[in-house]
Amino acid sequence: MKKEELAQIRQFNRFYTTQLNLMDHHHLGSTTTLLEGRIMLEISYGYRTVNQLVKILNLDKGYVSRTIKQLVGRQWLKSAVDPQDRRSKILTLTAQGRQVVDQVNKSSDEQVQTILAALSADELATVVRDMNEIQEIVNRYHPVDFGK
């Protein structure tokens, strides 16, 4: 990769994280961090064990486990022994945790709509098409497995 291409990609990453305000400690004005919100979102999608979360988030198991412990302490998650594998725990959202996920999802939708509101239909179609293309190309060489 040429130095100029690398610089352009890194500039885009800076642009994107700034546009979505991903560096803010409280994600989307909520009481969660980005990681806490993402863990709860993935649990809502059916990823129910620490090992599944570690795999799809590509994070250290200890880091994910500590964050889950905090979420259990806040009563946003419940952790129970897996009856099929007593070495593993099944994670589920509590009613309060579901409310947090719903609010973060709503805020995330509003954020994207606000950022892209001024685009014409053609511009929006181009952005969506190009995002899909980037995802497909990069995934060929550095796949993200969302399988459970």
Describe the fold and architecture.
There is one protein chain. The protein is mainly alpha-helical. It contains 6 helices and 2 strands. The protein has a two-stranded antiparallel sheet. Strand 1 and strand 2 form a beta hairpin. Helix 2 packs across helix 5 and helix 3 packs across helix 4. The longest helix is centred in the C-terminal third of the chain and has 22 residues. The relative contact order is 0.11. The model has no long low-confidence stretch (mean pLDDT 92).
In short:
With 148 residues, the protein is mainly alpha-helical. The protein has 6 helices and 2 strands. A hairpin with a 2-residue loop joins strand 1 (77-82) and strand 2.
Order of helices and strands: HHHHEEHH
Low-confidence stretches: none
Shape: globular
SS field, number of helical segments: 6
What is the mean pLDDT?
Answer: 92
Radius of gyration: 18 Å
Oligomer: single chain
Major sheet: order of its strands?
Answer: 1-2
* Percent of residues in helices: 55-70%
Q: Tell me the total number of β-strands.
A: 2
Overall structural class, as computed from helix and strand content, comes to mainly alpha
N/C terminus separation: 33 Å
The biggest sheet, with number of strands, parallel, antiparallel or mixed sense and barrel status, is: 2 strands, antiparallel
Measured by DSSP, the beta-strand proportion falls in 5-15%
